[in-house]
């Protein structure tokens, strides 16, 4: 009976240690994990998943209950591809929302969600909005200088 109790205590105390990172599709190479850890030393609830050509890692930063959720992509060699963070529309800088509103093609659209994505890449950062414009769903990317850099229509 004492052995069962000791094993139960060991199992329940060791479980959180082994569940710090979750791997759904195998485990990324050490270079990939090290690259992520170096860029995100405060990340927690880290989950890895292989998505076609990239490792996608979901994680949180900050502190609960207000932790911020992120997704990052890395290639097989550990090169960072991009990071995506959901932000409330109300937290998007006014300047960015003003740029979008002033755009003649998309400015009259309505937000389809209460949030946007803040996307960081090696070549630059931008906000992605989902809008309904003239009855069509559109994803619109706006750079910090106000340039609409991408629009995808979901027909």
How many helices in DSSP terms? 3
Q: Report Rg.
A: 20 Å
Ends distance: 65 Å
Helix and strand run? HEHEEEEHEEEEE
The helix-and-strand class reads alpha+beta
Overall mean pLDDT score?
Answer: 86
Morphology: elongated
User: What helical percentage do the residues reach?
Assistant: 10-25%
Query: Would you count the extended β strands for me?
Result: 10
Strand content: 35-45%
Uncertain runs are 7-19
Instruction: Characterize the largest beta sheet: strand count, sense, and whether it forms a barrel.
Output: 10 strands, mixed
Entry summary:
The protein has 155 residues and is α+β, with helices and mostly antiparallel strands. Helix content is 23%, strand content 44%.
Please describe what this structure looks like.
It is a single chain. Strands 1, 2, 3, 4, 5, 6, 7, 8, 9 and 10 form a ten-stranded mixed beta sheet that branches. By secondary structure, this protein is α+β, with helices and mostly antiparallel strands. The longest helix has 17 residues. Helix content is 23%, strand content 44%. β9 and β10 form a beta hairpin.
What keywords describe this structure?
23% helix, 155 residues
Set out the fold topology.
Elements: H1 2-18, E1 21-23, H2 30-39, E2 44-51, E3 54-61, E4 68-74, E5 80-88, H3 94-102, E6 110-111, E7 115-121, E8 124-133, E9 136-142, E10 148-154
Parallel strand pairs: 1-2
Antiparallel strand pairs: 2-3, 3-4, 4-5, 5-7, 6-8, 7-8, 8-9, 9-10
């Amino acid at each position: 009976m004492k052995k069962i109790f000791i094993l139960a205590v060991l199992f329940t105390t060791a479980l959180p240690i082994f569940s710090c990172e979750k791997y759904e599709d195998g485990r990324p190479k050490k270079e990939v994990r090290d690259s992520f850890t170096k860029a995100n030393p405060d990340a927690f609830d880290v989950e890895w998943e292989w998505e076609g050509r990239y490792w996608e890692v979901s994680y949180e930063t900050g502190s609960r209950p207000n932790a911020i959720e992120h997704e990052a992509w890395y290639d097989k060699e550990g090169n960072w591809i991009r990071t995506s963070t959901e932000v409330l529309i109300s937290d998007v800088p006014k300047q960015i929302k003003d740029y979008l509103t002033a755009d003649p093609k998309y400015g009259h659209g309505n937000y389809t969600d209460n949030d946007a994505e803040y996307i960081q890449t090696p070549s630059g950062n931008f906000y992605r909005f989902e809008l309904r414009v003239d009855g069509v769903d559109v994803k619109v990317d706006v750079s910090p200088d106000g340039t609409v850099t991408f629009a995808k229509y979901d027909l």
